[in-house]
Amino acid sequence: MLTLKGIAAAPGIKIGPAYRIGREEYIVPIQSITQEEIPLQIQLFEEALIQTRKEIIELQKRISTDMGQDEAQIFDAHLLVLEDRMLIEEVISRLKKEHLSVAYIFSEVLKKYIDVFSKIEDEYLKERMSDINDVGRRILRNLLGKEHKSLGDIKEKVVIVAHDISPSDTASMYKQNVCAFVTDIGGKTSHTAIMAKSLEIPAVVGVQNATASIKMNDILIVDGSMGMIIVNPDEDTLLNYQKEEEILKGLSDKLLVDKDLPAVTQDGESVEIIANIEFPDEVPSVKLHGAQGIGLYRTEFFYMNRKDLPTEEEHFQAYKYVAEEMKPYPVIIRTIDIGGDKFLSQFDIPKEMQPFMGWRAIRFCLARPDLFKLQLRAILRASVYGKLKMMYPMISGIEELKQANVILEQCKKELKEKRVPFDDDIEVGVMIEVPSAALIADLLAKEADFFSIGTNDLIQYALAVDRTNEKVAYLYEPAHPAVLRMIKNVIDSAHANNIKVGMCGEMASDEIFVWILLGMGLDEFSMPSLAVPSIKYLVRSITAKEAKEIAKEALSLPTPKEVELFMQAKLKALKR
Ligand code: PEP
Ligand code: MG
């Protein structure tokens, strides 16, 4: 039995045999050809390109119907790879010179391309590597005349194990016999992780040694919530997880039945349990899971998978759709938060030593008022179609907030002049995700309509732990007394100034913390849709009075471990 740790990319527990896919397909035997065979080899290459194009267009159509335009757009980049003259010409010229089979030459050229791209530091170009990899594998399959090894051919539920999984492979897992997947590389914000969450396939990425340690048909327990894989578990562990899987399944079915019950404590205090989204297409899942609003709409995903910039009209249409669909519930649009680990090729952002502490989020927006205004105008215009609110990410001080609001006022003025309707009273909130903001929450509360605590960042900055670095992941502790005290200070400061405070970082959907946060007085918990029913249930399982006592006790404990043990014991006592 072996336990591997990785990054929790999509939640849930699944058990199944490993099914390895990937790199082996590049091993193509070296084979000489004669001068006369060259035209035939060129023809084979052309046919493989045409066949690959057909496959991608079919896949694109299917994804567009099943999942929507945004997901299907990823394949535009794949089609462009097929038209890459440099790649095609290199294959043909080497074929003529070297007299080796086109499959072999192509596999060599592909390896070279992948090698070059993997060394480039630009995140966008790195993403393109997975496009080239993906298309390259398809071309190679067609060149070798192999049957397309489709995930649809897999007859039993398997766990896919790969060095990397491309967005197109992830998308083709939709409605197939794939119960989970595991990869050596990747991060929470990769297209692959985003897709996995929206397809509700548990996934652990960034495991580093997954393909080195897992063989075909090894039995795997994938815990996508904990970011953990157990390889060939012993009987007890397997039984425990099977039970856990069953319990979770039963629990989530049961919870879905009650999904529309309000999140009210047993003594009548209600809180909001709402959802985080990245794409408008997620709205049906938000409703399905009983979230009564959207507490974080991460709009920067709008800029991904495209080479151009979205227009104001595109922003507007997306926000209008979400506002209308969610009406009468609130939708909080976060203004773009690029930088950190979210790079967009359309902007000329230089590589920084400390990108999370660099030119990011509101700092970027204040430096590019043209782009910022475009988004603000779109939000304002959409505000008449539902209950829209907005918030700024990464505010570190009062002046930044005031500067952002000056730009917002300019937008309002422009719209008024043009007689474009908008909600003049739109609520403007501040994300509390920088320790300085948490410490001056009393001052910020006088300038903001609401707070939303972004614990994903707040924890990394407070504890000096890069949220994307696996080597220091053991120090990334939401239960750290410093974090709990900061949160308490933010909530108290908000309430002292009569504003509401939510939390949209992952901590809000971590069962360990729900009662503590409830007891501290958090008004709103925003999370991935999937988590909504279980968190609602936890809120309904306790009185506000008990939660207050729990929070008080948790705040008095000196170490994260003690807080966790204390809460685990409390949760265990809950009969589900
Ligand atoms: C956060 O930092 O907690 C947050 C919600 O924002 P993001 O994860 O997008 O940085
Ligand atoms: Mg953040």
Description:
The protein is of the alpha/beta class and 576 residues long. The protein folds into 3 domains: 2-20 and 156-242, Glucose Oxidase, domain 1; 35-144, Enzyme I, Chain A, domain 2 (Orthogonal Bundle), CATH 1.10.274; 269-529, TIM Barrel (Alpha-Beta Barrel), CATH 3.20.20. The chain is 48% helix and 14% strand. It is built from 22 helices and 16 strands. It has helices at 38-67, 69-82, 85-98, 102-119, 123-143, 167-171, 191-199, 210-213, 235-257, 283-288, 312-326, 361-367, 369-382, 398-417, 435-439, 441-444, 455-463, 481-496, 511-520, 532-540, 544-556, 560-572; strands spanning 2-5, 7-10, 13-20, 158-162, 178-183, 203-205, 219-223, 228-231, 272-277, 294-298, 330-334, 387-392, 427-432, 450-453, 500-503, 524-528. The strands form 2 sheets. Strands 1-8-7-3-4-5-6-2 form an 8-stranded mixed β-sheet. An 8-stranded parallel barrel has the order 9-10-11-12-13-14-15-16, surrounded by 4 helices. Helix 6 (167-171) links the parallel strand 4 (158-162) and strand 5. The protein is globular. 44% of the residues are buried. It binds phosphoenolpyruvate (PEP) and magnesium ion. Residues 296, 298, 337, 433, 454-457, 504-505 line the site of phosphoenolpyruvate.
Give a quick rundown of the structure.
The protein has 3 domains: 2-20 and 156-242, Phosphohistidine domain (Glucose Oxidase, domain 1); 35-144, Enzyme I, Chain A, domain 2 (Orthogonal Bundle); 269-529, Alpha-Beta Barrel (TIM Barrel). It is 48% helix and 14% strand. It contains 22 helices and 16 strands.
